[in-house]
Amino acid sequence: MNQFNNLSVNAKVVYLLSLSDLIISNISNSEGYEAAAESLEKCWEWVKYKNIKAYNLYLYLENMDETDVMTYMQFENDVNKEKVWICIANALAYTTWEAYHYEKEKFLPQTIESVDYETIESFIINFNQAYANNKLADRLLNYLEANYPNGTDKQIDINSVKAFINGITEK
């Protein structure tokens, strides 16, 4: 957890989104897959351009129409797929939390307000159970810490991060 805290804000989000991208295909035949995929796309867009409002990201996590990640996660009957849903929900919640802070919003939805270190721990535990290459998460964390440490506002080269991940997954 300390190493995660050593990352820049954007690197933290990129870490969670990158790992989520690796496992989302595990729920490709689940109801709600499209909503999950779209939520991750919007999170990536927020990281790149900061042009998505935090509230709009939040609506992918929870909404009144019950077309949100939290609802689909609750309906999942497969324990292994549920782990993927948990990761996506945690990544989305964390990204939304950062987006609200970026907007300097004081009042957050309750789910977002409760984002903390346990959110990240839950993500990592579930990711390690959902993805076979457990070393990848650690290696990605090391890469991001070396290149995008806390306190830097350096724009993240997402293509380089994806190339790094591809280099690990192809071995």
Ordered list of secondary-structure elements with their pairings:
Layout: H1 2-5, H2 9-23, H3 33-49, H4 54-61, H5 69-75, H6 79-102, H7 110-113, H8 117-130, H9 134-147, H10 158-169
Helix pairs in contact: 2-3, 2-6, 2-9, 3-6, 4-6, 5-6, 6-8, 9-10
Fold and architecture overview:
- It contains 10 helices and no strands.
- The chain has helices spanning 2-5, 9-23, 33-49, 54-61, 69-75, 79-102, 110-113, 117-130, 134-147, 158-169.
- Helix 2 (9-23) runs antiparallel to helix 3 (33-49), helix 2 (9-23) packs antiparallel against helix 9 and helix 9 packs antiparallel against helix 10 (158-169).
Notable traits:
171 residues, mainly alpha, 10 helices
Shape label: globular
Our measurement of the CA-to-CA distance between the termini, rounded to an integer number of angstroms, reads 27 Å
- β-strand amount: under 5%
Q: Percent range for helical residues?
A: 55-70%
Q: In terms of per-residue confidence, which ranges show pLDDT below 50 for 5 or more consecutive residues?
A: none
Mean pLDDT, rounded to whole units? 94
Number of strands: 0
| C-alpha-based Rg, rounded | 15 Å
Alpha plus pi helix count: 10
Structural class: mainly alpha
Query: What is the makeup of the main sheet?
Result: none
Task: Spell the H/E element sequence.
Answer: HHHHHHHHHH
TL;DR of this structure?
The protein has 171 residues and is mostly helical. It has helices at 2-5, 9-23, 33-49, 54-61, 69-75, 79-102, 110-113, 117-130, 134-147, 158-169.
